[in-house]
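Session log. Operator J.P. requested a structure for one protein chain; no other inputs attached. Running the standard single-chain path with token output.
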Amino acid sequence: MLASMKNRILPLYGNLCLALSFVWKSGHKWTLASIGLLVIQGLLPLATLYLMKLLVDHVADALTQPDPQFQLNEVAFIMMGMGGVALLSSVISILANWVSRGHSLLVVDHMQHILHTKSLEVDLEYYENSQYYDRLHRAQQEAASRPIAILHSLIQVGQNGISLVAMGGLLIVFHWAVVPILMLGALPEFLVRLRYANKIYDWERSRTGEERKAWYLNWILTRDTHAKEIRLFQLGSYFKDMYQEIRALLRFEELSLEKKRAFATLGAQVVATIGIFGVYFFLAHRTLQGFLTLGDLVMYFQAIQRGASFLQQFSGSLSGLYEHNLFLNNLDEFLKVKSRIEEPILPIAVPVSSSRGLEFDGVTFTYPGDTQKRLSNFSFSVKPGEHIAFVGANGAGKTTLVKVLCRLYDPDEGQIRFDNHNIRDFSVEGWRSEISVIFQDFARYFLSVRENIALTKQGAPDLSRIKTAATQAGAHEFIESLPFGYDTILGKWFEGGQELSVGEWQKIALSRAFFRNSQILVLDEPTSAMDAKAEAQLFERFHQLTMGRMAILISHRLSTVKMVDRIYVVDHGEIVESGTHDELILQEGSYAELYEIQAKNYQ
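Structure written below.
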């Protein structure tokens, strides 16, 4: 256990500095205010004890004097001083609570900013990896609370440390052995805290998967995404029972750990109590022998009482720091995730108007951790203003091609060139800004229609441009019929929101793709949720809508790709056929066979 604890204590300094940097960056002035207030709070108890000693001694002297009036005047001044210290303590406490709350809010927001920034930085592959979700889940649990908890623990360590030094100095005057006895009495509880901090940390890491599954089941039971199927197929009890089973297991294990910690803490506190009351007895004995005044007795008694309390709080804050440090490893682990999509050291500008177009040259790609090649020696080109299509069965590699094109992944072999420049020479953001994509699993944003289409923070977008994009996608007519037109909130999550059909949502997503002024337009099953009329209207105007752009169309419906300049048939990550629709029909290959099968359904 000692070796394990040593290995975990060694990184404490680094993680402590990391947490403090988060706290400092979130608000310099707030941090300094917290430090100043804790120093004052740490010294005030010593002033209170000394004034209490003076009060008791003066009262005791007054009782022995024939005329106590003079002593009473001094007692009044001492009482005024004690009242002033008490009032100051209240003011400082209220101010410290306000500063602590304000600083906590800043730290929480700052940490969420860091977490969001890192989540956007990591590659798409991490979002397709269960281990990443475990890291993200642990980081989300700790990011908002642990740094501020470390700040509070440090404040408590500082405040209690200052008070302990003051009390310790006072008690050493009484007897040198008092402080060591109190420290030895507090040591067992401190070691118990450290030991169970390790146990709880190890248990929570080992159960991250179950915690995440419970969160997922709760999400299924409480969100609209699964509401229809859960009711239709009567799945509520199934998912609810599954959730309760996982929570029962987690609850049992956690309570077992807490029970063991409670008994160990009780034993440690018995040792501490014996030490404290032993010192009390020694103090009373010295007073009866005449070595201490009644005021000394009261002062030292309270000093021992407060010193033991401060020592317990100090050790608790110190062990809390150790515990927070362990959990901060989760956040640090997440922040250290490195992106494989590397930015060029000296990026070149993406050509504003392409003259040579886009080219895939021998591109081969395998997903990390997979063994099957999703793209193999993939080669094709598309000229400015040219429109091409990719067709093939599910899993053939069509969507993978889009991910690699957008630099969501980089190919293992081969190059992707734009105007004869390797796209890795462009900045990632610069390259992606030249691509508009509507994915088959398009996103739905519960914002206004206007925001859904424009999705920009660069000032208020031109409404005429938004309407043009919506008209091109066939969405303008139904948008105008909404209660507030383009200012209508979509979805049912927020007040006044309007739900759309799947086909209407797809038209909104398509409007977003048309709105973006990019050189490459990628449409992945762009009409899968549209009715036949809307689909026909869209593709009748396909060339007009994509005029001047390089357009890449991915579709299972071969009737929708007839109008493009060139069609590529993909099978197991390879291009097996290419040509115009008429040329491929004449070849009588897999494209002609698929087209014939689909055509029979309409005959």
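Operator note: The longest strand covers residues 358-365.
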